[in-house]
Structures are given as C-alpha cells and as structure tokens.
C-alpha cells in the first residue's frame, strides 16, 4: 500500500487500536541513499531568522529570503521549512488572518508582496522542497489583546482566547477554534503547491509554574465524556491533527503532513513504553500523544526535536534515536531527526556542544537506525553563519552526494 493511500486508509478508519509493538523483522541498514531529508527551519517569529528586522522594504525582504534559499541549496540541503503562520497571522494574503507584524512592524499592514508564494516558486526553482510551517494555536507572544490588529479574529472572538504565561493562546477545547485554525491554514494549502504542511511542538502551552490554563468553560461544555481533563485535552489535539490530515488530503492530495514535537513522549518511569529519560513529557505536559500519531499513521512524517548531546544525563540523543526508530518501525510514518545546530559552539551549552564534530556524530549514530530518513537543522540563521563550523563538518562528513527529499 502506498504512502498516500495508507494514510488515507488510516484516517478513514479512525482506528484507536495501536499497532503491535513488534512489526516484522527490522529492515536492512540503508545505504547512503539518494533519498534523504536534509532540511532547515526558517523561523519568522520575533524575526528570529527572517526578515532580519521588521519594516524592511519588499525588495530587501525578498533578497534576504532568496539568500536563505541559496544558502540551503549551497549547503546541499533539499528542504526549507518556512514559518508562515507564527502567531495567528499570515505571510500570504489571507482572508482569515492579518498580515504578520514581523514583515512590516505593524500587524495587518500589507508588505507589498507575497512571501509564501515567492518562497514556493523560488525554492522549487532551486530544487528545494518548501514545507509551510504553521503554529496552530499561538495567538501572540504577549498578553495584551489590544495590541492585536483591530480585525484580528481573536479580538472578534475573545472567548476563544486564553492568556497564559504572558502570551495569548487559542483554546483547542472549542470545536469552533479547531475549525477556524484549520480554515486559516488550509487557505495556504489551497493557494500554493507547498510540498508539506508542518506543525511545530506547541499544542497546549508548555507548563508555567504557579499558573493554570483556564479552559474551565470549554471543559464544562465539551469534556463530560472523558475520564479526566488531561484525556479530554489530548483528544482535542488528536482531533486537530487527524482532521488537519484529512483536510490536506482533500484539498491538495499528495501534499505531506509532518509534525516536529518535543523529543520526549513519556519517560519510562511514568510509562513502560516511554524512553529512558528524565524530561518534560509531551503526552502529559502539552497533551500531545506523539507516539499515537505515528502508530496510527495520521501523519506522513515526524521530526522529534532531539536537541540534546550524546551522553546527556536527562535526555540522551543515543537513547532517543533508537526509541523513536522503534516507534516508527513498521508504520507508514517517516522519521526525521530535529538537530540543535543553534547549540553548536554556544558557550552557555555543555562541553560536548563546544566540539564542532558533535552534530556530525549525531548523523553517524543515526545511520545505524534505518528508520531515520534524514535530519532537519534549527535554524537558518546558524546555517548561514556557521560560526563554529559544525554544519561544515556535517556537510564534509555526510553530504558528499546530493539527495532528494523522501516521498
């Protein structure tokens, strides 16, 4: 059964029965194949990678964007994951949400060009795949609704919004919220031949000590059938993921759907199916049952953020790669590994990150696990500058031959 039909079958069945933990024999170790994910995240939130600052002219913004695409191609990469909806806004002319403030400095102001449309065309012209990266539920990185554009849906529907941790979030417990954010994202899928839709790791917000995410009203209205609020919250995120996958399939068949979650599903001390780690747990802390999404084939790829060095005492890269490989084994979901390029050479990071060869060792280690189909690097700013030479080492050691993205 092919990738698309397999995912479509899984979505249609809406099965909740997990696949067996041991599905057949392990496949033979793959060669250095011509098909491998070599990706980079290009973040726009708070102007992290691009544009370098808000308020640049359209020509300046475009030139910077093309420079990032050129860098990716020059480094031997084949995929750029561009953040096009960083904070319930848009980097294309959306009828649902305002233009992003990270373009002009003012939310809702037309930048005078179409960044997403340009990015798709120019990436493809360079032989790069373009994955459209959406943050589905973050409204703002501040807590003041009055700072949002007057036309912003969060101002028209304040009941959709929960302030938490100094930020504004949509409440995923409301069916109308889940429907709206899908409408907003699917507008881009319908307009542009993006190669994939990509979610990051933000679902329910990461825990903040001493604060409570106030979803009492939505839980009272919709949570009665569940044994706990936590189970209800996980179901809300499951629905968002499953429904998004189904809508992508309907709107633009062949467009892939991938998610890059926090790298730990659950710790083994909590759940025997978990990893030998002592870290935050996406299942319990942001209500993202990432293992289920893989085993149920709801998504085409998963790219866990394994942002730890080999030998880390709390979350060891060398523990998590085989754990995720086993999760993906026998499923229709491809596994890529998210790599912390931004940590390389950072004096605030532990000693292993001061060695320019640390990232290269990650790829060497992962090659012993045939389920790992490639790597994605955070992020584009460090890809361009590479002050520590870590990316140059990866290229020299592993990217001697070109590769096309997995399909």
UniProtKB/TrEMBL annotation:
<feature type="domain" description="Glycosyl hydrolase-like 10">
    <location>
        <begin position="36"/>
        <end position="349"/>
    </location>
</feature>
<dbReference type="Pfam" id="PF02638">
    <property type="entry name" value="GHL10"/>
</dbReference>
<dbReference type="InterPro" id="IPR017853">
    <property type="entry name" value="GH"/>
</dbReference>
<keyword id="KW-0732">Signal</keyword>
<dbReference type="InterPro" id="IPR052177">
    <property type="entry name" value="Divisome_Glycosyl_Hydrolase"/>
</dbReference>
<keyword id="KW-0378">Hydrolase</keyword>
<protein>
    <submittedName>
        <fullName>Glycoside hydrolase family 10 protein</fullName>
    </submittedName>
</protein>
<dbReference type="GO" id="GO:0016787">
    <property type="term" value="F:hydrolase activity"/>
</dbReference>
<dbReference type="InterPro" id="IPR003790">
    <property type="entry name" value="GHL10"/>
</dbReference>
